[in-house]
Amino acid sequence: MIEGFVALYIFMLAAFTGYEVISKVPVILHTPLMSGSNFIHGIVLVGAMVALGHAHTGLEQLVGFVGVLLAAGNVVGGFIVTERMLDMFKASGKGGK
């Protein structure tokens, strides 16, 4: 029972820390930081999968599944943003050289 409270405490602490860190980043820096932090999203996804693998109760499995789902969305979103950012630096082909 105590292990569940510790896991919940760590989850709440991670959520609060993540919110505080991201909220302090200026809007203009979000896109460049997304490309540099795709590896962090991958680590979060692996951590969520490990947590899901160690889940024992239905509630733990549900929270783990939601964690994996959100982390996977983060990874995909990071790569989409990076691709769009890199497309801005390609030659447009309109009246180009």
TrEMBL record:
GO annotation, cellular component aspect: plasma membrane
Residues covered by the NAD(P) transhydrogenase alpha subunit C-terminal domain: 8-90
The enzyme's E.C. designation: 7.1.1.1
Superkingdom of origin organism: Bacteria
Keyword annotations: Cell inner membrane, Cell membrane, Membrane, NAD, NADP, Translocase, Transmembrane, Transmembrane helix
Enzymatic reactions: NAD(+) + NADPH + H(+)(in) = NADH + NADP(+) + H(+)(out)
Transmembrane stretches, start-end: 6-27, 39-56, 62-81
Compartments where found: Cell inner membrane
InterPro entries membership: NADP_transhyd_a_C (IPR024605)
GO biological process terms on file: NADPH regeneration
Pfam families registered for this protein in UniProt: PNTB_4TM
Major place of residence: membrane
Membrane topology term: Multi-pass membrane protein
Function comment: The transhydrogenation between NADH and NADP is coupled to respiration and ATP hydrolysis and functions as a proton pump across the membrane.
Entry protein name: proton-translocating NAD(P)(+) transhydrogenase
Lineage, uppermost ranks: Bacteria, Pseudomonadati, Pseudomonadota, Gammaproteobacteria, Chromatiales
